[in-house]
Amino acid sequence: MAQTATLTIDGKTYELPIIVGTEGEKAIDITKLRDQTGLITYDPGFGNTGSCKSAITFIDGEKGILRYRGIPVEAFETNPNFVEVAYLLIFGHLPNAQEKLNFSERLTKNELLNESMKHHFEGFPVTAPPMAILSAMINTLSCYHHQFFELEDNDAFMEMAARLISKIRTIAAFSYRRSLGLPFIYPDPKLRYCANFLHMMFSLPYEQYYIEPEIEDAMNLLLILHADHEQNCSTSTVRIVESSEANCFASCAAGVCALWGRLHGGANEKVLEMLEKIHQGGITPEECIKMAKDKNSSFRLMGFGHRVYKNYDPRAKIIKTMVDKVLTKRKINDPLINIARRIEELALADSYFIDRKLYPNVDFYSGIMLRALGIPTNMFTVIFAMGRLPGWIAQWREQHMDSSMRIARPRQIYIGNNEMSFVPLEQR
Ligand code: SDX
Fold first, then answer.
1. pLDDT in tens, 357-375
2. N or C: which end of the chain has fewer CB within 10 A?
3. Residue 1 has pLDDT above 80, yes or no
4. Whose alpha carbon is nearest atom 22 of ligand 1?
């Protein structure tokens, strides 16, 4: 028997359907609420509002569970392969050998940028924020691939997905090289996805960057851990842009902009800045905790807290373990890791954080991880975007194929002036 919710307004009772997800989550279906009652709901930040039905990622925030198409994220720790996970998220299953070969070949075929795109990098100041470049260049890609504005079939979609996933790497690496005044290093078709990215970032014209297997694995796992996260701010942005039937390039460029914010993907950079400030003696871990608790301060403990996780973010756990391995492998003694651990220890013992269920999230240790890989701080959120891109494409495709979805157009509660007369200029 279908469950319903009963709503009584001004003595009148309404029955609203309850829908149940495959993991037992329940939602009150209010798609007919305004027609039936004349009222709307009010939920700034949408913390209590489901925007869609999705089969891509499942999160249980209370238990700290994250699954991609049903597979627990921990399963990807061994032999991490970002291209396989990208395929899983987008097409709904892990690729078999032939599917993986075909998709990898598409990625390799599409690794270069159109040569005329290089000039756009020259137009940015060397101090340009890489996220600004990334968003601009993803939109610019659409100027060279407008055949994907209308997707006729699955093959066209797969080709578009491969171009975006392959070229974001090249754009990211080129923006890094430009910022240092270094020559662009072209992709090497013999290298796998992450190895090719590291090659484009760190090789020199006549000196191939040596890619240690452990570092390649760490890069794969880091991108996997960022690959999708249900209806977060940037993914919701991608879906909203898609809902107007804009193309996937425009939707992902908008996703980059949403991810940039310090409360979202920009947090990893802010965590590093916070740890650096502590390291340089500007502030102590104890003072950090105190400021984070001070309602009169806008300071937030970056890398802590989450809208959905009210438990330890499973991604933070994995990254924390991975950081130790990479620091040991590279024989790096990074003082920031000890500061981060101290902050975590203080916060998890403090009632302010315990009562609010504030735990480390994906951004808390990822910055130290990226630093150990040689990635500069201003590129951290770009790496996050590289990882999240397959998730954005998967969510874009799921909505694009869902005929029940409509253009996103929320309502509001108006609190402005009631009707008033126009006052001519001479009387103002
Ligand atoms: C990501 O949504 C996703 O899935 C995102 C993400 C993904 O993969 O896409 O997981 C990636 O964005 C991770 C989050 C990265 N951001 C940060 O680390 C920034 C610091 N964190 C916060 O700003 C905050 O926790 C958010 C933005 C992550 C969540 O904000 P909410 O859900 O709106 O929570 P809130 O602001 O309502 O906070 C509830 C309470 C408040 O205190 P009270 O008013 O109840 O007294 O907790 C406090 C907040 O002041 N609080 C914090 C805090 N986070 C929440 N206090 C100090 N430091 C913090 N970090």
1. 999 999 999 999 999 999 9
2. N
3. no
4. 305
Pairing assessment for the beta strands 71-72 and 12-20 based on DSSP bridges: unpaired
Q: What is the pLDDT of residue 309?
A: 96
Identify whether 264 is a catalytic site residue.
no
Q: What is the pLDDT of residue 250?
A: 97
Give distance in angstroms: CA of 301 to centre of ligand 1: 9
Identify the pLDDT of residue 149: 84
* Candidate of 262, 273, 306 to mutate for ligand 1, largest count of ligand atoms within 8 Å of Cβ: 306
Decide: 390 and 165 in contact? Cβ < 8 Å. Answer: yes
What is the chain's mean pLDDT, rounded?
A: 96
Question: pLDDT class for 147, splitting at 50, 70, 90?
Answer: confident
Residues lining ligand 1, Cβ inside 6 A: 45, 229, 232, 263-264, 267, 292, 300-308, 356, 358, 361-363
pLDDT at 302: 94
CA nearest to 369, candidates 424, 314, 330, 408:
330
* Per-residue pLDDT tens over the stretch 282-329: 889 999 999 999 999 888 999 999 999 999 999 999 999 999 999 999
> From the candidates 217, 228, 313, 363, which is the catalytic residue?
363
Q: Which residue from 22, 40, 29 is spatially nearest to 5, judged by alpha carbons?
A: 29
For ligand 1, mutation pick of 358, 366, 380, 384 (most atoms within 8 Å of CB): 358
pLDDT tier at 110 (50, 70, 90 boundaries)? very high
pLDDT for 88 equals: 98
Distance 277 CA to ligand 1 centre (A): 21
Q: What is the pLDDT of residue 189?
A: 97
